[in-house]
Amino acid sequence: MISGCSNEGEATTVTSDSIDAEEVLTLNPDADIFQYDGVIYETNIDWVEELSLTKDVQIGEIKTKNDSNTDFKDEMANKLPVGAKIFSAKERGDILIVELEGEILKYLAIVEG
After folding, report:
1. pTM higher than 0.90, yes or no?
2. Please, which domain of life does this record's source organism belong to (predicted)?
3. C-alpha distances out from residue 91 to 25, 59, 69, Å
4. What is the spatial distance between Cα 45 and Cα 39, in angstroms, rounded to a whole number?
């Protein structure tokens, strides 16, 4: 049996080592990001742009635009317009594809590494 303990009264939280919008935008104020399933995704990353990816199924769409603060919720973006469709990529689980006005944008999951 495995058990864990914490100091009396101390709240313990489990995170998926994801970085929030505030951290990303502090490092890069011009970052083009959105949040999906609790994870921030960012585009315009050189090595990601060079990948050849296949758009898979639609998994969501941008529901809210937030360019005024860093309090992000799922399906919220700072630059993408409301209604932009989010797709999974067949080749990579850590990259999502957004189709916008016929253009394909690749967004990488930003996690602490």
Report:
1. no
2. Bacteria
3. 27, 15, 33
4. 16
96 domain-assigned: yes
* Residue 111 or residue 80, greater confidence: 80
Helix intervals (H) in 5-111: 21-27, 46-49
| C-alpha to C-alpha distance for 105 and 83, rounded to whole angstroms | 14
Q: How many domains does the chain have?
A: 1
Q: How far apart are CA 74 and CA 52, in angstroms?
A: 26
69, 58 contact by CB (below 8 A) = no
Does residue 2 belong to any structural domain of this protein?
no
pLDDT at position 111, please? 87
CATH number of domain containing 78: 2.170.150
